């Protein structure tokens, strides 16, 4: 089959995990990026880093000014475009979409993408009272990729101290249980079984951070090594950011890859990509157990690729928390009994913050190369089930040029709920999250619906009530808010 010589192709992948027992052996993020870049170059089978014309770095929690420029200098690349990104777990896949479009348009020829975090050694250093060395990298990238982003949280959420993902995703989880009509015990059994299957995949992945076996019971049960974080999630149902990991990808055109002498058995093609953002906050969405954004993205993705969910041989669903996986699987028509990750997910593979999806793309590339003719789906999520970027890949060339869509106008046309502050009156409890302190529950955040269909928030800190929330179903219960108190019936 004839193929457009400008067809974008992923030709090199590199992954690095760097666990240390001695902080003297730790690597800072930019050093891990450089090592991952050299691994990606080795994966191509040719020497090419000095020839790249664009270096693109996923934003991390580090303080480097222009890490792309520093890397370009170290690999001997001259006259290079340098690119950074905004924050967000969606940025890897979204940047892959933009890179594919840039290559197809002829704006760039050979692109190096990388990112890394040192959450493990940084945490170890804080505990030891040690300051890790950090290279001073000045300047700004030529381009900062991404669009202006709204806050992750509605101001009414922030007013009640709801500012982090670990406070919101448990609300999605409890809402899923209620929507499915499951018992507390039955729900936890199903979800811990799902997460144990992610752990099974991690045990087959040599670059996973947690490569040892954990049973569903161990994952579900709070313990000295699996502390309760936010009901219903113990630590092993949260993304594991305490990892030292880096990754790199090399993308070029078919023509340039052939010119460089890269073996075509290394080629992995992005076929289609679709993006969109759900309504910006849980406060204004219709409910806590669906994602219209993912649903519309999936529908468009399948139409562009000419496939259905049954045609996907491999899948990596963004897995910061089990609720994110369940919602995405449901909206995309994927059964929970199949493997929904190629890495082990953000708990077991490790979740180096914004850079996790680079690892899932690298693992996906390896699997597609080993099994020509297969197709894989990568999903990426930024914020609280908010910013989505999905792509389909294959080692088989696409029938048409790479296609990209943004379904934002369709999402924006969907209705949003009003969120009320200072509400007094009758409510139905929609969902909740019980947050733990050092030894016991400290506060419960509750989302409630008014008779008119608006949403309001309230916190409770009664110890007996919070304990009851972890033992019996509170979703769907009626009550009345008066001031800062909730009287449940």
Descriptive notes:
The protein has helices at 29-44, 67-75, 91-105, 119-128, 155-159, 165-180, 184-203, 216-220, 254-260, 292-305, 322-332, 345-348, 356-370, 408-412, 463-469, and strands at residues 8-17, 54-57, 81-85, 110-118, 143-145, 228-231, 233-234, 244-253, 269-277, 314-316, 375-382, 387-394, 403-406, 419-420, 425-436, 441-449, 455-460, 478-482, 485-488. It is an alpha/beta fold. The strands form three sheets. Strands 6, 7, 14, 15, 16, 17, 18 and 19 form an eight-stranded mixed beta sheet that branches. The protein has a six-stranded mixed beta sheet with strand order 1-8-4-2-3-5, sandwiched between helices. A hairpin with a 1-residue loop joins strand 6 and strand 7. Helix 6 (165-180) packs across helix 11. The chain starts with 7 loop residues before the first strand and ends with a strand.
């Amino acid at each position: 089959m004839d193929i457009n010589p400008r067809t974008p192709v992923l030709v090199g992948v590199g992954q690095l995990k760097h666990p240390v027992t001695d902080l003297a052996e730790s690597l800072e993020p930019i050093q891990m990026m450089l090592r991952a870049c050299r691994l990606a170059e080795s994966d191509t089978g040719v020497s090419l880093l000095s020839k790249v014309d664009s270096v693109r770095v996923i934003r991390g929690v580090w303080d480097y000014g222009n890490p792309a420029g520093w890397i370009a200098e170290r690999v001997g690349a001259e006259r290079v475009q340098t690119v950074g990104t905004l924050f967000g777990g969606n940025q890897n896949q979204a940047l892959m979409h933009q890179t594919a479009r840039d290559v197809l348009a002829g704006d760039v020829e050979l692109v190096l993408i990388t990112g890394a975090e040192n959450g493990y050694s940084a945490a170890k250093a804080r505990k030891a009272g040690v300051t890790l060395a950090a290279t001073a990298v000045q300047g700004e990238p030529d381009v900062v990729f991404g669009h202006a982003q709204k806050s992750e949280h509605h101001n009414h959420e922030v007013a009640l101290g709801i500012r982090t993902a670990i406070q919101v995703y448990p609300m999605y989880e409890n809402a899923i249980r209620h929507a499915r009509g499951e018992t507390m015990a039955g729900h936890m059994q199903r979800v811990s079984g799902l997460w144990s299957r992610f752990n099974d995949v991690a045990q087959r992945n040599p670059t996973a951070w947690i490569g040892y076996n954990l049973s569903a019971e161990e994952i579900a049960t709070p313990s000295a090594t699996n502390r309760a974080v936010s009901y219903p999630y113990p630590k092993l149902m949260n993304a594991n950011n305490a990892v030292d990991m880096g990754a790199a990808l090399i993308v070029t055109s078919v023509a340039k890859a052939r010119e460089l002498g890269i073996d075509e058995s290394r080629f992995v093609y992005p076929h289609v990509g679709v993006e969109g953002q759900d309504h910006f906050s849980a406060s204004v969405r219709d409910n806590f157990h669906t994602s219209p954004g993912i649903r519309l993205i999936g529908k468009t993705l399948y139409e562009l690729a000419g496939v259905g969910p049954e045609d996907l041989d491999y899948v990596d669903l963004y897995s910061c928390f089990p609720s994110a996986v369940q919602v995405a699987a449901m909206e995309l028509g994927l059964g929970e009994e199949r493997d929904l990750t190629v890495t082990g997910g953000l708990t077991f593979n490790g979740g180096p913050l914004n850079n996790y999806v680079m690892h899932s793309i690298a693992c996906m590339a390896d699997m597609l190369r080993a099994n020509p003719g297969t197709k894989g789906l990568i999903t990426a999520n930024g914020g609280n089930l908010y910013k989505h970027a999905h792509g389909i890949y294959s080692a088989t060339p696409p029938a048409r040029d790479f296609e990209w869509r943004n379904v934002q106008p369709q999402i924006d046309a969907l209705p949003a709920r009003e969120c009320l502050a200072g509400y007094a009156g009758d409510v139905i409890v929609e969902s909740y999250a019980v947050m733990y302190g050092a030894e016991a529950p400290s506060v419960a955040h509750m989302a409630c619906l008014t008779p008119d269909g608006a949403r309001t928030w309230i916190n409770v800190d009664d110890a007996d009530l919070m304990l009851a929330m972890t033992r019996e179903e509170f979703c769907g219960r009626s009550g009345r808010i008066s001031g800062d108190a909730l009287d449940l019936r």
